[in-house]
Amino acid sequence: MKFTRKKLHYDDQLIQLIERYQNDFYRLAYSYTKNEQDALDVVQDSIQKAMQSYEKLIEKEKLKSWFYKIVVHTSLDFLRKHKRVQVMEDEQLQANQRNFHDAYENVDLEHALDDLPTIYREVVILRFFEDLKIEDIAFILEENTNTIKTRLYKALRLLRADLKTEEEF
User: Fold this and answer.
1) pTM value?
2) How far apart are CA 138 and CA 123, in angstroms?
């Protein structure tokens, strides 16, 4: 019996991009999944999808935005497939509390972001945490640039209102 190996079509540019921005891609996936292992799975699935469809990418100069788009869509697919409540064992919870180091300077901001509807949260994350341009975000989310600007404006208004309410307490 002879085995044939399916050849994947991609070049070093894709591999270099993934290696260079792996932490950014992981952080983006984590912002959706809120779980380390799930975020790693999303990134791994995204890499596989990118390698399988790299040949179809016409505008190679948009490689980074294209890969972000794959991560966003893979994250959303993951969340749809795995709608579940994460239950943490007492031992794991205590271990996490002992080693807890909050990377966020502002916990209220983190909670306010979590409270935003997904369409607003993803625009804020891509713009301010991933430092992407409005045009790149529009490409990633497959929306018009004016739609992205409107969502960003509304998201910032919602965040401001939410944080202002937090301050009052």
Assistant:
1) 0.71
2) 9
Range of the domain at 140: 105-169
One domain for residues 93 and 111: no
Burial class from Cβ neighbours inside 10 Å (0-12, 13-18, 19+) for residue 143 reads middle
In three-state secondary structure terms, 127 is: helix
Q: In angstroms, how far is CA 20 from the centroid of its own chain?
A: 16
Q: Are the beta carbons of 137 and 148 closer than 8 angstroms?
A: yes
List the end-to-end C-alpha distance of the chain, in Å, as a whole number.
Answer: 71
* Same domain, yes or no: 67 and 126: no
CB atoms within 10 A of CB 62: 16
Sign of torsion over alpha carbons 84, 74, 138, 32? positive
Q: Are 83 and 114 members of one domain?
A: no
pLDDT at 152: 94
pLDDT for the residue 1: 45
Residue found by looking up tokens 């994947």 in the block: 8
CATH number for the domain harbouring residue 143? 1.10.10.10
CA distance 112 to 128: 15
